[in-house]
């Protein structure tokens, strides 16, 4: 079996090196050929010296591929195309702000060898920066049994058969019109499922995501809830048409906005109870932001948060 681990990056050398070394520290079973492709989403290659140094020190086959068209869908498509063109059986997405944990690669490879699905979606655990409020660092339990069939996935800890990208296979691509808005991975894997390919949960394959400090503010978190609601509505429009997406957004938006505002009445005084009360108020505030996002979709508002690189 041939497996290509792919890492999309742009102007984040410290995070990239940590990610590379975490992958290179993992053991590769006998009979499996494994390499790492760093897809630099930039106007020129800048990370080659770093990649060459890590490859030399670890003994891994690591190479850089340039994707000059900015936007994560372009970079992730380059991952799939590179893996297919170079004859790899599988590609494995890991983000440059993530770290592979012990057993991660072995678990992914074992899943590939069992060949029970076309996509295996692993677990991501957030690592929050020092000073993060307790009420904002919400628990992230493993809610599914391994092997659970899924109708979608995300692109940050995901094992994918290359035939999904191959011209003689499904020939699917991430939607490049979603280059800076987010949601292209959910859209892509939804279409993978609709094509008949199987997606399964693999909870034992764990990576840790290093969350930048600038994301752990109330303002950023509420903006995220706002834009995620817009992104979900955009995906519903792609799947079911504009009219149904608008109706859904108005209905969902009204419910979340009203529910959040009503629950803020007990939530505000509950904040004096400490972390539990503040966590409750935080969740209600996100409900309000999400409801406003649904209405913003109807008004044609489309934020583009990924024009700027976090953690550069």
Textual characterization of the structure:
It is a single chain. By secondary structure, this protein is of the alpha/beta class. 43% of the residues lie in helices and 18% in strands. Strands 1, 2, 3, 4, 5, 6, 7, 8 and 9 form a 9-stranded mixed beta sheet that branches. Helix 1 runs parallel beside helix 2 and helix 6 runs antiparallel to helix 7. The model has no long low-confidence stretch (mean pLDDT 96).
Give the arrangement of secondary structure elements.
Blueprint: E1 2-9, H1 13-24, E2 33-40, H2 48-58, E3 62-66, H3 72-85, E4 90-94, E5 98-100, H4 104-114, E6 119-127, E7 149-150, E8 157-161, H5 184-194, E9 199-210, H6 218-240, H7 242-270, H8 275-298
Parallel strand pairs: 1-2, 1-4, 2-3, 6-9
Antiparallel strand pairs: 4-8, 5-9, 6-8, 7-9
Helix pairs in contact: 1-2, 6-7, 6-8, 7-8
What's the number of extended β-strand segments?
9
Helix content range of the residues, please?
40-55%
* First-residue to last-residue Cα separation: 35 Å
Q: What portion of residues belong to β-strands?
A: 15-25%
The sequence of SSEs as H and E is: EHEHEHEEHEEEHEHHH
Return the structural class: alpha/beta
Q: How is the biggest beta sheet arranged?
A: 9 strands, mixed
Rg (CA only): 20 Å
- The general outline is globular
Note poorly predicted spans.
none
Helix count, DSSP H or I runs of 4 or more residues: 8
Based on the structure, what is the oligomeric state of the protein chains?
single chain
**Average pLDDT rating:** 96
């Amino acid at each position: 079996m041939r497996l290509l681990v792919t890492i999309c990056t742009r102007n984040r050398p410290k995070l990239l090196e940590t990610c590379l070394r975490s992958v290179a520290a993992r053991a590769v079973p006998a009979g499996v050929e494994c390499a790492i492709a760093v897809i630099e989403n930039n106007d020129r290659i800048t990370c080659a010296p770093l990649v060459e140094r890590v490859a030399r020190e670890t003994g891994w086959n690591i190479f850089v591929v340039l994707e000059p068209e900015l936007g994560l869908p372009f970079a992730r498509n380059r991952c799939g195309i590179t893996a297919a063109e170079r004859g790899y059986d599988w590609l494995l997405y890991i983000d440059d702000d993530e770290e592979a944990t012990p057993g991660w690669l072995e678990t992914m490879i074992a899943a590939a060898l069992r060949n029970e699905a076309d996509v295996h979606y692993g677990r991501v655990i957030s690592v929050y920066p020092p000073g993060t409020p307790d009420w904002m660092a919400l628990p992230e339990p493993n809610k599914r049994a391994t092997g659970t069939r899924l109708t979608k996935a995300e692109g940050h800890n995901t094992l994918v058969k290359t035939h999904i990208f191959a011209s003689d296979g499904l020939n699917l691509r991430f939607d490049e019109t979603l280059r800076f808005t987010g949601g292209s991975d959910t859209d892509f894997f939804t279409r993978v499922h609709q094509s008949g390919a199987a997606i399964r949960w693999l909870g034992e394959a764990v990576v840790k995501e290093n969350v930048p400090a600038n994301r752990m503010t109330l303002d950023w978190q509420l903006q995220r809830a706002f834009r995620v609601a817009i992104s979900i509505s955009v995906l519903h429009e792609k799947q079911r048409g504009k009219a149904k997406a608008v109706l859904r957004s108005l209905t969902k938006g009204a419910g979340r906005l009203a529910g959040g505002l009503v629950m803020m009445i007990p939530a505000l005084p509950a904040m004096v109870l400490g972390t539990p009360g503040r966590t409750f108020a935080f969740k209600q505030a996100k409900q309000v932001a999400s409801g406003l996002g649904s209405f913003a979709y109807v008004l044609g508002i489309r934020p583009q948060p990924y024009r700027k690189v976090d953690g550069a």
